[in-house]
Amino acid sequence: MSWHWLEVGSYIAVTSFLVLTAVVTISFHHVPSLSKWLPESCVLIILGLAIGQFLKLLDALPIDPIANAEQMVTNDSTNCTAEPAEKYPFLAFTPRLFFYVLLPPVILESSYTLYDSDFASNIGTIMLYAVVGTVINTFAIGPALYALYHMGAMGDGVLLVNHNSTYTLTILDALIFSALISAVDPVAVLAIFNETHIDRILYFLVFGESLFNDAVTVGIYHTLLEFAEAAEPVGAGKVCLALLNLVAIGVVGLLIGIVFGLVAALLTKTTKHVRVFEPLLILGIAYLAYMSAELFAFSGIISIIGCGLVQSHYAMRNVSRKSKTTVKYFVKMSSAISEAIIFLFLGLAFFMERHVLHTGFIAWTLVLCLVCRFISVLLLTDLVNSRRVRRISFFEQFIMAYGGLRGAVCFSLSHMLLPDVVKPRELFLTTTLAVIIFTVFVQGITLKPLMNLLNIKRADDSKDRPLIVDISENVATLMLAGMEQVIGITGHFSVFSKLLQWDEKYLKKIFLISEYEPDVLRAFKRHARQLPRIQVDVLQPGAGLGEESVQQGRQIKTMLHNFRPMSFMRHSVDDDTCELEKLDEPAVCFRRQSQIFNARQIHGAWRRQTTRENMLNLDEA
Q: What 3-state class would DSSP assign to 500?
């Protein structure tokens, strides 16, 4: 019997780390007194702190994070010289691990969630918050920090670069820091808002903004870093080119995602006889969309969002129900475990980094992050409310501003900073961690009580809305589109209606299988599957019933094979028994839990349904 730790030790350690994360998460939800007031993300960060302290005692933590950060940015594999990092590579939280491994499952699962009419109807408002709001925060926090520093409001006239030297803050360094600290983290937002069961529209406004906010933030961050690396004066021409580059990063990233989504739809049209590969195609192509965009320095986040939305619209209708279920739960599982690992690593980061603490800089950063976000949300909401049918209330605006949580995105961006380019790197890392802890613990813990205090509308507990709601929304959209065409304007509803018509006429014929189900039928089947099966009891003669009544009941039982559940007329009673003396013509009772259908009701509903179908056939003739 031999010991093979060098060969299998790292695999055992990674697997044990994942299992431990799952066990802690499950245990947390089995303690209602704890999960009622403490968010899951807080518990995972605390666990990360405990693991970090334990590993520090074992001298098992990487001790050269600056070298690792340089390696991640420059992609120079020859710089990996830190011995602890080589010995325990799975313990190092690197930007490459976050952006290429942990983040894509979270964004993909979120993109499938965004395939919703509420998101589509609020896309303009979401993009306004994500783009304009991020720009406001970036170019308000940075100059404000720079001005406060030079006014002496932070106390010290110099900032510590590390424990041995000092540095005077520049405006470009302040802007780089404000760009990364403006990143509202979708992982933190998703973790908190899923626990609060917030209203659907408010959920999509905050969560959708956090997704697109990251894409804008990363683009601004890299643009400012290029200015810092060039070490040249920034003129108007460079600013214009930078703006065009930001637009190209998002637009081209979206196009890459759409193209990969359409490729997935075409491939899944050919998998009728090989269903086992359908989940692999959908998940693999989505990840390829993300990595392809990153390969050419475009936005991988926007790319995988676009790919996920296109897959939800086309590819998911081509695959079998089992494949769809496999994709759904695999993405949910990988997203949940990625979120948990991210928060654990945030706790470990307190022991893996060298910190420079400047209380004045941290305090002013926290104040400016809150003030600037509240100002941007209030200003932009006042602008969009004048054109919205469903206005965003002041209390909802407060929750939107207060729910701007920071997390692993801004920490990863701060970790990517090179000390040769941005001198106060360690100060920025420490301040970023302080902001993350404040937003996740203070704002995250108080968010749910604030929602109760402000009486914020919560989402319905049922996962699926009633079928009548979906039908009514479609009818209302078509009516409003017709009204816009009558009065001669091109509005949201008419454009949306034309896109749907174009999709039905051309795109679905190309990217969907010939036997795909229309949206209305899919929604109907989804709701019908939730109904319990109807049990039909035909009473025999001898119970006070004649042969004619029993024969009628048998005929009705045969009808049910082709009968539509939507046409049933219900007759509710208090118990499950069919009391003959309480029903009219009770020859046959149809039981469904506490609802009983008698023969007269079923036969009448069937005749009405048949009459409607005959009338439709005559109209078509």
A: helix
Can you tell me which residue has the tokens 């359409």? 262
Measured CA to CA, the distance from residue 235 to residue 330 in angstroms comes to: 49
Q: Give which of 323, 254, 326 is closest to 290, Cα–Cα.
A: 254
With contact defined as beta carbons under 8 Å apart, do 104 and 287 qualify? yes
CA distance 157 to 153: 9
Query: Phi, psi at residue 198, to the nearest 5°?
Result: -75, 160
- 71 vs 67, 194, 334, 351, 419, CA distance in Å? 6, 36, 27, 20, 12
- Residue 432 CA: distances (Å) to CA of 179, 429, 435: 12, 5, 5
> How far apart, in whole angstroms, are the C-alpha atoms of residue 288 and residue 285?
5
- Do the beta carbons of residue 114 and residue 203 sit within 8 Å? no
Q: Per the structure block, which two tokens stand in for 586?
A: 């009770």
- What's the burial of 598, exposed, middle or buried (CB within 10 Å: 0-12/13-18/19+)? buried
Q: How far apart are CA 189 and CA 183, in angstroms?
A: 11
| SS3 call for 388 | coil
Q: For residue 374, is pLDDT > 50? A: yes
Minimal CA–CA distance to 210: which of 137, 312, 284, 297? 137
Distance of CA 588 to the CA centre of its chain: 50
Q: From CA 444, how far away is CA 437, in angstroms rounded?
A: 10
CA–CA dist 570, 223 (Å, integer): 64
Three-state DSSP class for 538?
strand
Closest CA to 134 of 189, 190, 200, 185: 185
- Specify which residues 538 forms β-bridges with: 588
Stated pTM of the model: 0.77
450-455 contacts, C-beta under 8 A, 24 or more apart: 450/398, 450/399, 450/402, 451/196, 451/198, 451/399, 454/395, 454/398, 454/399, 455/395
**Token output for 341:** 């690992």
Q: What's 392's DSSP letter?
A: P
Q: Could you tell me which residues are beta bridge partners of residue 167?
A: 159
Within its chain, how far is the Cα of 399 from the centroid? 18
The CA distance from 249 to 255, in Å, is 10
d(CA 210, CA 9): 38
Residue 604 and residue 567: Cα distance in Å, rounded? 10
Tens-digit pLDDT profile for residues 330-355: 999 998 888 888 888 888 888 776 77
pLDDT band at residue 538 using 50, 70 and 90 as cut-offs: very low
| Strand residues in 222-334 grouped as ranges (E) | none
The per-residue pLDDT for range 199-238, each reduced to its tens digit, is 788 888 888 888 888 889 988 998 888 888 876 777 777 7
Q: E strands along 402-561, which residues?
A: 535-538
| Contacts of 211 by beta carbon, 8 Å cutoff, 6+ apart | 107, 110, 114, 130, 186, 301, 305
Chain length of the chain: 621
Between CA 248 and CA 508 the distance in angstroms is 28
Compute the distance between CA of residue 93 and CA of residue 69 in angstroms, rounded to an integer. Answer: 10
Spell out the residues 6+ positions from residue 494 whose beta carbon is closer than 8 angstroms to its own: 481, 484, 485
Q: How many CA atoms lie within 13 A of 43 on its CB side?
A: 20
Distance, first Cα to last Cα, the chain: 83
Which residue, 125, 111, 132, is CA-closest to 202? 125
